[in-house]
Write a structure and sequence with these properties.
By secondary structure, this protein is an alpha/beta fold. The chain has helices at residues 36-44, 86-102, 121-132, 149-162, 183-194; strands at residues 6-12, 25-30, 62-67, 71-77, 106-114, 137-142, 169-174. Strand 5, helix 3 (121-132) and strand 6 (137-142) form a beta-alpha-beta unit. It binds guanosine-5'-diphosphate. Guanosine-5'-diphosphate binds next to helix 1.
Length: 199
Amino acid sequence: MTPLRARLLLSAASAEQFPQTPYPEIGFVGRSNVGKSSLLNRLLLQPRLARVSSTPGCTRTVNFYLVEERWVWVDLPGLGYAAVSRQERQQWARLIRHYIEERQQLRLLCVLVDSRHDPSPWDMAVMEIAEQRQRPFVVVLTKCDKLSAQQLQARLAQLQHLLAQCTFVVEVLPTSARTGMGREQLLAVLRRYCMAPVA
Ligand code: GDP
């Protein structure tokens, strides 16, 4: 397995700063501490590209990574609760909504959900925005190494049930940044959608 060439293009704190690029995009959205940086690094096989945090909620930019000089991966962090006002959190939620609804380059949204917990209202709201805007999305279950086979089956069944009415969910995929579980499957889906026409 060779690492994917990737570099940070830009970190944006507001929609005005989103870069104008000709490349198709994959968005990765998930609450802080869900394991998003670890998963991105594992997908790229680059241990230090995305920042793995031990302090939840410290990232406050949307990060655009140019991958293989031909597509862009966008890290859309959810905010943690530490030291963040309600107003800031609402502002941030609006920015993420704006990205999902308006970003022309977006081909596929990965919604990261910690497999150990029920999806939060925030996770469900993100999926609902994608569904309403008719954006294809993958639910990426993170940290699945922490679950027994039985627990994982129960979580998958729960999500299938919750998403039963959704037309734009592509799949629910168990992953682990620790073991590499799901990496090849997820990369295959990302590559497939990267070639898809804009919704
Ligand atoms: P982010 O805030 O969503 O970017 O999350 P991080 O990637 O910084 O990870 C948050 C914490 O979860 C860190 O302590 C990671 O070591 C841990 N973590 C991330 N992915 C996994 C995983 O697949 N398995 C396990 N067991 N822990 C993980």
